[in-house]
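Attaching the record inline, Q. Sequence:
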Amino acid sequence: MTYPDAEAVPPLDAERVRRIRRLGLRVNRLLDSGLAGVYRSAFRGRGIEAESVREYVPGDDAARLDWLVTARLGRPFVREFIEERNLTCLLAVDLSASMRCPGLARAPREVAADVVAVLALAAAHNRDRVGMLLFGSEAHLWVPPAAGRRHALRLVRGVLGHPASSRTTSLNVAVESVLHLCHDRGLLVLISDMDAPDVEPALCRAARQHDVLVCRLSDPLDRRLPEGPVPILLEDAETGRRVEWLGTREQRDAARVWRDEMDRNLRRALARSGADLVELPCRDDPVDALARFLHRRASRRVGRHGSATFPG
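Structure, as predicted:
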């Protein structure tokens, strides 16, 4: 399998170029107002490095005892560690047919570009490296991790401009491709509508090496099916299957059962893998929703480490 370079993305039209610039300016204002620190607190580097040893004091974690130094000096010593500051962030963006369908709200692919902009520019602000994989039923485009604002905007351009042709979604392809192409431990963000069967193996496989965040993009049409006596022909964007929608109770019950089963499968996969989930409805502003999620995640991490606690 080959992974074309990001330069294979065709030039964008003037309107999309203006949109990227406006989005960049907006995210920069959020970063200047504190989002950069929230991003850093929410996703800290996982690597740790031993810095020094010091004498044990009551309250220290016994797991940090340095037994060699303790045995040599006859009194307990603990190791001091410093946390790795640089983080490798990998964005896996679903470009299957369902992500390209316009609904009552914006197309999920447009929302995905906003999410990429927030995370990539936040990473650039913190001097972290960020890479990106565009995928569907196969890997379409791999952009190796790099740092800098120019690189971050290049990723947004890739999401908006790449002519992906896949109909279906394969999270297994996305995860296996990322693990094969980048061996650094870091943050893996899956940006998708998650309308794929059997997502649990892929999430568990990814979580063995990375901190995993799932950004699920949803459209109001997924939950609110059309009403009325006039028959409507519905087509599944990924499978091409067509159904005549009559709005009967049997059809509504079947659709609700299918959607509930998909939700249960995802929740079970998240619980077993330890991955985080942020819901991003396409009718809402994904930038603000993602910022709120980062604040909540940063608060949970700080509270768990015992430095401070935050309400809510």
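Residues 113 and 160 are 7 Å apart (CA to CA). The chain has two domains: 6-41+85-305, 48-83.

More tomorrow.
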